[in-house]
Write a structure and sequence with these properties.
Chain lengths: 111, 112
Amino acid sequence: QKEVEQNSGPLSVPEGAIASLNCTYSDRVSQSFFWYRQYSGKSPELIMSIYSNGDKEDGRFTAQLNKASQYVSLLIRDSQPSDSATYLCASHYSGYSTLTFGKGTMLLVSP
Amino acid sequence: EAQVTQNPRYLITVTGKKLTVTCSQNMNHEYMSWYRQDPGLGLRQIYYSMNVEVTDKGDVPEGYKVSRKEKRNFPLILESPSPNQTSLYFCASRLGLQETQYFGPGTRLLVL
């Protein structure tokens, strides 16, 4: 069973702080990893994708991948109230035609 | 504008009345999927399609049908809806296996 695990939260951080969202996956042959942001009642939208070990930065967002530990994370610097949403981690497993999603972590950024 | 569209966006129906939710993408994507999202259960895949006339079951296919007669369209069919199919449904598409997946705006379905 291919699984992606996330803490459901909520993760509460003050405005301006760094929010750290974590995700673990169960299969060592996973090749691609994605972070999506989903506002309540809206569709998921892609924040970051990462394919190789290490860090990938895009503006205030940094995705980190450690394949040996089967761990992927998303850091949000200078968190804003508008970042309050549920963040979904997804993995593509080699040999499968689909993405596997975690259940998401709710992030709350207080002013 | 590159997008995935779904219709209708909101639907209230009664048990047993057949319905179809349409999905269309204008990005020439090979892969299309249907998901349902329920509180506490996350996104669960219903069906997916790798290309025209090629479809396969996801994690929760019972009670649903799909077809892929054209590359751009991937309708979801509920032959005899039941209240446990009340949910938020998303269609999604992507170009390749490791490519970004784009979601439609969602269809909120209530089955009475």
